[in-house]
């Protein structure tokens, strides 16, 4: 693969005779445009000073010089456009400049020259792109491989690897070519290809794709493809090809110029034919100089770029902003985009008669302190969030793909796989296994002194702002939302159902994603959102590629047109709102300016407007349309103001408390489940624990929200935004009192009675459901507002 890239570079060198002059011309253009702006501005200013001092000849000389300076590059721009079979607004400007020189209207010429230079400079600033060469894809690619031959391991160039070679892949190394595991097992981090953070295990004879990382111990691989024909090389090739094949965008100004140019030339010709005076035709050209196109549209787009940047969205050029404003289809990745991309503990389960769920978590986290596995990090984070006192593990060993074993507090502990088939699992463990399947969660089992004792379920949760973002994107004009993910179908479908997406496709490889994006782009302007190396080709192929740049792959950012610099997918909705509004204002400014120019052209045609007054009138039109275009810098009317510091601080506080209260939700569910099979002392103790957690932790939290957070939000968002949440607080209080009443009855009657069980179980399950929904609503509606 690397050799192929090197050959491509060599080929580029052979074409240096062609590439060199093009690069030189680009460099000249970058210097010419600001120099032209400075020169024409100085000429107009110098002539104005001379005119004020009463020296008309010097003033005319300055203005004429500014006009001549602008004519030369303008002619070059027109010739270049005509060679590409595109006649744009610059042709009118050239005709107007030449006409003012011909009839001696030098002030008008200097004004047009300054307009032209300003427009070109603004357009260059709006359209200048950052490099898109996907450097990180190439930097990440291995340059060599370790080949085993006759019992010896030698390092060879990657291009020398052939099909059938046995390669040795060490820990942390990138798999160099596609192959099959010869000796293993192989524990792989496939996130570079699939976008999923979970590790995969491949046994002997199973296929492994190039580009994935060895997350376990040393394994051997039999090459089934050369480097040039392997998966990772294909990703690089697809990204480059997609970027090169995307058709150039026809900009807003060019679309208007397509009819404004022939109309202007026609009116100027009629003026000359009717009056027999070239001066009248020049007057028409002067007032027709398309500054609303040269200036107003770029100003609105550049203003939109500036406003987007203030919201943490970097848009590479004005064309991307215009396309974003016209988008109708969104193709979006799941992991790291709609979800947080970081595994999180969903539930902790414990075997009947064994340690409590909290103790299961403490033992697992204590042992996982020595593990670098991504799930171990999530378990450790959860234990620290719950302020559990962790012990120092002893005699630890970690077997890749199996788990960690060691001694914690004098007991033998294993965290990882259970080693049991589903049919061998005890009843409680089968229930946990079923829930993992239903919730699309991963399971980490805890084996204590040889006995399966507990389990930790982990999942990749939705971002707080994902549901709100999807609704806002629909409002912004998107009519189709499609999710592509390398994850399994079960969790992918759950995310799609919660967010109300139109279609979900799971198990997608980079080739699948790029095919899907091309298919959608053929039907409508399509936006693709992703954050990983595996998304880079699809981002390059989309009409607008959007990268989660805060912690996504560099290659994704370089292939994208839009980069979200903050780790909030909601910024995409902000960007679409800004893009649609900026484009709408650009259209208003261009159309309004051209309408006024058409009226002035009619006056010039009738001889009512000489060239110099016409140029001044055109300047007034320019000022009006530019001021209108600058509205794109301001927030839209009705935009929600930023949160007050007090409200933002309260949101952060209560969001943290939600994290702390997840063990309370687990305890409520565990107690309800226990009542199904047991209503003796153990079940009563579990319900008492729930009542204690409700009284000391959950209810104080809900009351504090009602009396502190909601009033702060009401002041800024209006009381209607919290009314339904207050009703949920009342229901939570009612169910908590009902559970407490059942406990009082049990105390009076010497234990839980059979007639209490159905209602108590329903109250616990009902409370658990209400709390989960209530927490989700608050996180989506309120917590997502704060950065």
Could you describe the 3D structure shown?
- With about 775 residues, this protein is α+β, with helices and mostly antiparallel strands.
- Among the domains are: about 140-245, Calcium-transporting ATPase, cytoplasmic transduction domain A, CATH 2.70.150.10; about 315-340 and about 465-575, Rossmann fold, CATH 3.40.50; about 345-460, Calcium-transporting ATPase, cytoplasmic domain N, CATH 3.40.1110; about 645-785, Up-down Bundle (Four Helix Bundle (Hemerythrin (Met), subunit A)), CATH 1.20.120.
- The chain is about 60% helix and about 15% strand.
- The chain is built from 27 helices and 22 strands.
- A seven-stranded mixed beta sheet has the order 10-22-21-20-11-18-19, sandwiched between helices. A six-stranded antiparallel beta sheet has the order 2-1-3-9-4-7, with no helix packed on it. A six-stranded antiparallel beta sheet has the order 12-17-16-15-14-13.
- β14 (about 405-410) and β15 form a beta hairpin.
- α12 crosses α21.
- The relative contact order is 0.09.
- Residues about 1-20, about 125-135 and about 240-250 have low confidence and may be disordered.
- One of its GO terms (cellular component) is plasma membrane.
- It holds the Pfam family E1-E2_ATPase.
- Keywords: ATP-binding, Cell membrane, Membrane, Metal-binding, Nucleotide-binding, Transmembrane, Transmembrane helix.
- GO terms for molecular function: ATP binding; ATP hydrolysis activity; ATPase-coupled monoatomic cation transmembrane transporter activity; cadmium ion transmembrane transporter activity; metal ion binding.
- It is found in: Cell membrane.
């Amino acid at each position: 693969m690397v050799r192929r890239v090197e050959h491509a570079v060599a080929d580029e060198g052979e074409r240096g005779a062609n590439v060199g002059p093009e690069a030189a011309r680009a460099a000249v253009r970058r210097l010419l445009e600001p120099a032209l702006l400075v020169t024409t501005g100085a000429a107009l200013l110098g002539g104005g000073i001379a005119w004020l001092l009463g020296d008309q000849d010097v003033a005319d000389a300055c203005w004429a010089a500014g006009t001549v300076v602008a004519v030369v590059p303008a002619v070059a721009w027109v010739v270049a456009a005509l060679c590409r079979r595109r006649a744009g607004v610059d042709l009118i400007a050239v005709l107007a400049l030449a006409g003012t020189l011909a009839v001696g209207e030098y002030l008008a010429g200097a004004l047009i020259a300054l307009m032209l230079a300003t427009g070109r400079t603004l357009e260059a600033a709006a359209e200048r792109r950052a490099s898109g060469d996907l450097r990180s894809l190439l930097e990440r690619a291995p340059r060599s491989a370790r080949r085993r031959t006759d019992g010896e391991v030698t390092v060879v160039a990657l291009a020398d690897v052939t099909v059938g070679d046995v390669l040795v892949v060490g820990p942390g190394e990138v798999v160099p070519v596609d192959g099959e595991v010869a000796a293993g097992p192989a524990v792989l981090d496939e996130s570079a290809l699939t976008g999923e953070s979970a590790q995969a295990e491949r046994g002997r004879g199973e296929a492994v794709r190039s580009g994935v990382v060895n997350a376990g111990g040393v394994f051997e691989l039999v090459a089934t493809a050369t480097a040039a024909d392997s998966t990772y090389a294909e990703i690089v090739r697809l990204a480059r090809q997609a970027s090169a094949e995307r058709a150039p965008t026809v900009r807003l100004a060019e679309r208007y110029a397509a009819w404004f140019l022939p109309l202007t030339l026609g009116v100027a010709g009629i003026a000359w034919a009717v009056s027999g005076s070239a001066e009248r035709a020049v007057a028409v050209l002067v007032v027709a100089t398309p500054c609303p196109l040269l200036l107003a549209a770029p100003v609105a787009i550049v203003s939109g770029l500036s406003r987007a940047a203030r919201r943490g969205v970097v848009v590479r050029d004005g064309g991307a902003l215009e396309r974003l404003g016209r988008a109708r289809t969104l193709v979006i990745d799941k992991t790291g985009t709609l979800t947080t991309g970081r595994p999180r503990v969903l539930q902790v389960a414990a075997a009947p008669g064994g340690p409590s769920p909290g103790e299961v978590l403490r033992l697992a986290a204590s042992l996982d302190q020595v593990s670098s596995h991504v799930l171990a990090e999530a378990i450790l984070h959860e234990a620290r969030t719950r302020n559990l006192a962790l012990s120092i593990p002893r005699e630890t060993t970690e077997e890749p793909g199996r788990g960690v074993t060691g001694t914690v507090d004098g007991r033998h502990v294993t965290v990882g796989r259970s080693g049991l088939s589903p049919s061998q699992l005890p009843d409680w463990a089968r229930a946990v296994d079923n829930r993992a399947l239903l919730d699309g969660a991963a399971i980490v089992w805890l084996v204590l002194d040889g006995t399966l004792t507990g389990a930790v379920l982990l999942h990749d949760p939705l971002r707080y702002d994902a549901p709100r973002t999807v609704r806002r994107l629909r409002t912004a004009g998107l009519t189709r939302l499609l999710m592509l993910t390398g994850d399994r179908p079960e969790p992918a479908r759950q995310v799609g159902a919660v967010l109300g997406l139109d279609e979900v496709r799971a198990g997608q490889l980079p080739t699948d994603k790029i095919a899907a994006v091309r298919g959608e782009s053929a039907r409508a302007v399509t936006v693709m959102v992703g954050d990983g190396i595996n998304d880079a080709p699809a981002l390059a192929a989309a009409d607008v590629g959007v990268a989660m740049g805060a912690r996504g792959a560099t290659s994704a950012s370089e292939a994208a047109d839009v980069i979200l610099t903050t780790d909030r997918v909601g910024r995409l909705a902000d960007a679409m709102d800004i893009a649609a509004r900026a484009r709408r204002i650009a259209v208003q400014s261009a159309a309004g300016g051209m309408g006024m120019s058409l009226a002035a052209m009619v006056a010039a045609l009738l001889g009512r407007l000489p060239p110099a007054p016409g140029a001044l009138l055109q300047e007034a039109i320019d000022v009006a349309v530019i001021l209108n275009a600058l509205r794109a810098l301001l927030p839209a009317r009705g935009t929600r103001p930023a949160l007050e510091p007090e409200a933002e601080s309260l949101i952060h506080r209560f969001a943290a408390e939600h994290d702390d209260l997840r063990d309370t939700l687990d305890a409520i569910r565990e107690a309800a489940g226990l009542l199904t099979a047991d209503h003796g002392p153990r079940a009563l103790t579990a319900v008492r624990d729930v009542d204690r957690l409700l009284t000391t932790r959950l209810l104080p939290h809900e009351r504090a929200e009602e009396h502190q957070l909601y009033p702060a939000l009401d002041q800024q968002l209006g009381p209607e935004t919290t009314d339904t949440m207050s009703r949920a607080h009342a229901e939570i209080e009612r169910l908590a009192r009902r559970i407490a009443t059942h406990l009082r009855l049990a105390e009076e009657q010497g234990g839980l009675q059979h007639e209490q069980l159905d209602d108590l179980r329903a109250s616990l399950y009902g409370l658990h459901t209400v709390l989960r929904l209530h927490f989700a609503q608050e996180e989506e509606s309120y917590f997502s507002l704060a950065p």
